[in-house]
Amino acid sequence: MSEPDLFSFAAAKSPESRIRELRTLLEHHNRLYYTQAAPEISDAEYDRLYRELEELEKKHPEFHDPNSPTLRVGGAPIDGFQQIQHAVPMLSIDDVFELKDVPEPAAELIAFYQRLRKNLGRDEITVTVEPKIDGVAVSLLYRDGKLAYAATRGDGKTGDDVTHNVRTIRSIPLDLTSSSKIQNSKFKIPATLEIRGEIFMPNEAFAAMNAERDEEGLPTFANPRNAAAGTLKQLDPKIVAKRPLAFLAHGLGAYDGEPLETEHDFHALLDQLGIPRNQPLFTARNLDEMLECVARINRERHDLDYGTDGAVIKVLDRAERENLGFTSRAPRWAAAYKFLPEQQETTLKNITIQVGRTGVLTPVAELEPVLISGSTVSRATLHNQDEIDRKQIHIGATVLVEKAGEIIPAIVKVTKPVPGVGVYSIFDHAEGKCPSCGGPISQEDGFVAWRCTNFQCPAQAVTRITHFASRKALDLEGLGETVAEALVRHNHCRTPLDLFDLTESILANLNLGTDESPRRYGEKNAAKLLAALEAAKTKPLQRWLFAMGIRQLGESAAKELARLHENLNDLAESPILAELLRDTRADAKKKNELLAKYSITGDVGPAVAESITTFFKSEAGKHTLARLSELGIHPQSPISNLQSPNGPLSGKTVVITGTLSIDRDAMKEYIESKGGKVSGSVSAKTHYVIAGEGGGSKRDKAEQLGVPIIDEAELEKLLQGL
Question: At CA 325, angle to CA 319 and CA 326, rounded to 5?
Answer without folding.
Answer: 145
